[in-house]
Amino acid sequence: SRYVVNDPVVQSTTSTATSSSTSAGMNFDGISSDGYIPPDTNLSVGDTQIVQVVNVSYAVYDKTTTTQLASGAIHSIFDALGAPCGTKDGGDPVVLYDKMAGRWLISQLEYNRNFRSNYVCVAVSQSSDASGSYNLYAIPFGQNLPDYFKLGVWPDAYYLSANSFQNGVSFIGANACAFPRSDML
Known about the structure:
With 185 residues, this protein is mainly β. It is 2% helix and 46% strand. The protein contains 1 helix and 11 strands; from the N terminus they run E-E-E-E-E-E-E-E-E-E-E-H. It has one helix at residues 181-184; strands at 41-45, 49-54, 57-62, 68-73, 94-98, 103-111, 118-125, 134-142, 144-153, 157-166, 170-180. The radius of gyration is 20 Å and the shape is globular.
């Protein structure tokens, strides 16, 4: 038999915001997508800085004044690693602020033309200054392209999830990875 039960916690009233209850925040122009479609925009806000990544570029801004403190190609952060992370940009960037440690994570995908060599490049700042030095990691995924990956911060690890495609073509499932946070810091 079928019966209907009312939800005891359903919202019964609505309200609308008035213009006096909101105020405009600080606005400023970020970096452009440089013609890439889609632009894969991503931004994170820390205690004193804002970091934006768009396709293959990054910018660091002062949170109070919005002055741009640093910018460039994402691969320039990975210069010390050499190829592939330090020589070209693969896109799908992600930036996160680790509030517990006061550190930044900047990452992007890297792959070769036939998708037989795939990496997620991860940079973890050595301080709360996103324009400073980073610990650098090139995480290999072999022939499995970790497409459109996402990162999360947890006390024990940095977690990654991705849609995996063998040789960049055949979907083979989802990946879930954990990178020990204390080691990466």
